[in-house]
């Protein structure tokens, strides 16, 4: 049995903050941000919104569009590192709000690689636990952990949510997936502070070191995954990567010898939405009308930890 992606939906907050708007309060410029990152704008959630409310909006849209019987959803797996509550998990909040009973429900935190970790768990649920459907969500409210006075990180992130539905399929779907982590990145990319104190917790990063790690890991992980399944990179129709930085993707694309036209980039409009960035990019590809059933997709991501992951599937 395969886990096949049968639907996707997204939620993006209404407020769009342009690079120009950021440059009014930070010593930066639209030109610098576009040249170094490819980012033009980002969505920022309203005061009364949370990661949980964004995830719910994406899932409500998805289930309404698909007219799914909630009792057929066997698992809800939410990738996030910005939940505003310690418990219950966003997955359990979704189960309650959507009327889904008896589902295996949990949140996973693997930072920007979280969506692929969640996909890996959803794949296991369908293959080994006979779930008919598995609901996988990537959501992050990065603006809530951004240090808005630090120009080196404040320009990079945005908020959003993306949900996909996996369905058991006897013929095709997810072909392979690998996720992992390594220990040396802890100080290079982290949120400082203590959630149990009243001080704000904000993200800091050694951009250059993270850049180096990301290029190396995105390439080797994807290459090893494809090689282990005997898949020629040239047979990939679409690469749907985590959207951290346009230059990182350009480096990896060159190493891979894959046409840049096959690499989906949405950071211009969304910036880096952490665990939400792959489902947002996938949905934008679907909306463009270019993605058709049977296409081969390669997902890849890296994030704080360091964590990393890659997956290959037939859509
Ligand atoms: N506007 C203008 N100047 C800036 C800005 C800004 N927003 N930010 C930094 N600078 C300045 C620096 O102060 C520095 O100035 P100096 O030379 O006078 O000291 C200069 O620009 C160069 O800074 P660098 O940090 O060397 O710039 P770099 O080319 O490395 O680009 C960037 C920075 C965009 C952050 C890059 O390193 C990068 O993209 N790294 C990877 C980031 C990433 O992918 N993060 C993923 C996070 S994943 C997760 O799990 C959350």
What is this structure's SSE topology?
Elements: E1 2-11, E2 15-18, H1 19-25, H2 30-37, E3 41-44, H3 51-66, E4 73-79, H4 90-98, E5 104-108, H5 114-128, E6 133-141, H6 151-154, E7 159-169, E8 174-181, E9 189-192, E10 202-205, H7 207-228, E11 238-241, H8 246-256, H9 267-270, H10 277-287, E12 296-303, E13 307-314
Parallel strand pairs: 4-5, 4-6, 11-12
Antiparallel strand pairs: 1-7, 2-3, 6-7, 8-13, 9-10, 12-13
Acetyl coenzyme *A binds at residues 28, 32-33, 36-37, 111-112, 151-152, 155, 189, 205, 207-208, 210-211, 214, 244-245, 248, 272, 274, 303-304.
Describe the 3D structure.
This protein is an alpha/beta fold. It folds into two domains: 2-169, Thiolase/Chalcone synthase (Peroxisomal Thiolase, Chain A, domain 1, 3-Layer(aba) Sandwich), CATH 3.40.47.10; 174-314, Thiolase/Chalcone synthase (Peroxisomal Thiolase, Chain A, domain 1), CATH 3.40.47. The chain contains ten helices and 13 strands. The strands form four sheets. A five-stranded mixed β-sheet has the order 1-7-6-4-5, with helices on both faces. It has a four-stranded mixed β-sheet with strand order 8-13-12-11, with helices on both faces. A two-stranded antiparallel sheet has the order 2-3. The longest helix has 22 residues, at 207-228. Bound molecules: acetyl coenzyme *A. Acetyl coenzyme *A is lined by residues 28, 32-33, 36-37, 111-112, 151-152, 155, 189, 205, 207-208, 210-211, 214, 244-245, 248, 272, 274, 303-304.
């Amino acid at each position: 049995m395969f886990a096949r992606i049968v639907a996707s939906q997204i939620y993006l907050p209404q407020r769009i903050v342009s690079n120009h708007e950021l440059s009014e309060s930070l010593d930066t410029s639209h030109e610098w941000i576009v040249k170094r990152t490819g980012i033009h704008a980002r969505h920022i959630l309203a005061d009364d919104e949370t990661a949980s409310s964004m995830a719910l909006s994406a899932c409500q849209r998805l289930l309404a569009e698909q007219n799914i019987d909630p009792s057929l959803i066997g698992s809800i797996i939410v990738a996030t590192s910005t939940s505003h509550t310690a418990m219950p998990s966003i997955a359990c909040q979704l189960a309650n709000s959507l009327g889904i009973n008896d589902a295996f429900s949990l949140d996973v935190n693997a930072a920007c690689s979280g969506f692929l970790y969640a996909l890996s768990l959803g794949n296991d649920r369908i293959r080994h636990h006979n779930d008919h459907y598995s609901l996988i969500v990537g959501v992050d409210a990065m603006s809530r952990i951004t240090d808005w006075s630090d120009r080196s990180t404040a320009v990079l992130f945005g908020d959003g949510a993306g949900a996909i539905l996996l369905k058991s399929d006897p013929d095709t779907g997810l072909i392979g997936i690998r996720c992992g982590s390594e220990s040396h990145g802890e100080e290079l990319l982290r949120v400082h502070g203590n959630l149990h104190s009243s001080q704000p917790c904000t993200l800091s990063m050694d951009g250059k070191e993270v850049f180096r790690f990301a290029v190396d890991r995105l390439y080797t992980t994807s290459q090893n995954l494809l090689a282990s399944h005997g898949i020629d990179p040239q047979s990939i129709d679409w690469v749907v990567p985590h959207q951290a930085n346009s230059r990182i993707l350009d480096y990896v694309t060159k190493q891979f010898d894959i046409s840049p036209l096959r690499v989906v980039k949405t950071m211009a409009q969304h910036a880096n939405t952490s665990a939400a960035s792959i489902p947002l990019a996938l949905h934008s590809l679907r909306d463009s009308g270019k993605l058709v059933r049977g296409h081969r997709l390669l997902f890849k991501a890296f994030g704080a930890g360091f964590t990393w992951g890659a997956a290959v599937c037939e859509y």
